[in-house]
Description:
Elements: H1 6-11, H2 17-71, E1 84-89, E2 92-97, E3 100-102, E4 117-121, E5 131-135, E6 141-143, E7 154-158, E8 166-168, E9 170-176, E10 181-184, E11 195-200, E12 204-211, E13 214-219, E14 238-241, E15 244-253, E16 265-267, H3 280-283, E17 285-295, E18 346-354, H4 356-359
Parallel strand pairs: 1-8
Antiparallel strand pairs: 1-2, 3-4, 4-12, 5-6, 5-11, 7-9, 7-11, 9-10, 12-13, 13-14, 15-16, 15-17, 17-18
Amino acid sequence: MFAIPRQASRNQGGFSLVELMVAMVIGMLGVIVIMQVFSLSESRKRTTTGGNDAMTEGVMSLYAMQRDIRMAGHGIGDTKVLGCNTLLRAGVTLNAMAPVTINHASITGQDVNTDTLLIVYGNSNGSPQGDAVSVTAPVVNVVATPSAFAANDWVVDAPDRVNSCSLTLDNVASVDLATGALTLNSGRTLTAGNTVYNLGRTFKVVVYAIRSGNLTICDYTTNDCGSAANNSSTAVWVPIANNVVSLRAQYGRDTTAVMDGVVDIYDQTTPTPTSATTGCNWARASAIRMALVSRSAEFEKTTVTGAAPVWEGSTAGNPTGSAAAAINLTKNPDGTANPNWQNYRYKTFQTVIPVRNLTWMGAVSGC
């Protein structure tokens, strides 16, 4: 037998224990660094994605609300009907009907420290100032411009107004273009001198509200949005955007002694018709200033928001005489304290929207 050389035996012995341990330590350090980089990258990715989601939800929500507010008042842009109580259907009355109402008295159940918007408008081709009615025999209800009406249009009629008023929504059964005769499904005979306002076939009465941290909408034409029994129903209050945590709004009002059609102050004072002004106070509320606040869905481990967002309506004095409607995020939807609100990132969207169907009226005579 031949003896194996000592040097060859040493070369074939492999790594020593010390070398293996050093290699393992280096490998573990590399894994730790890689995992830290990965964790930080994922955190940044989630924050960026959450911020993008908040941006998208806020932009789309504001667009939807702007679209409705710009149409508000179409078909009811007259001091004869502004602020009237209107029977929409049996058992459901919309009190103080107006183009846009902030925090309407009938609406409850919204998250604390948030506002609601109730918006009304029609889609008819008729005059927004309505059509005068005369009563003749054998024809009964004769309107001034029968071509502006069609079967299945929704209408309300109003007398010359002195103080408060109560209207009833009715439906057109038929219209005779030759005689101007307007027949209603209810069979009612209107009063000579009344004015008929056409809301079209698909008029809208919708309410926007923040509920459980989501922007929701309720259709008053098919649901009783003012019923407390419907407050918990997602079929009635339909979520249209997630993580929208605040809605604040103010009227832009003309407060000059003789109306000049120019916004002087912003506040949440709901116009109230009186015997002296009838619907003039509503005609003076020709703009809505509002803010939406959306929240990232990502909960941060540390405080990332030092103070609640601010907007133009957060402080009084712009212009002089305006009232504050600050954004408050310190409460949960049920009113309990929310100690974690600063662990989220927020985006604020604000705008001033002209209520066009009041603006076109300009300075109303007598107001």
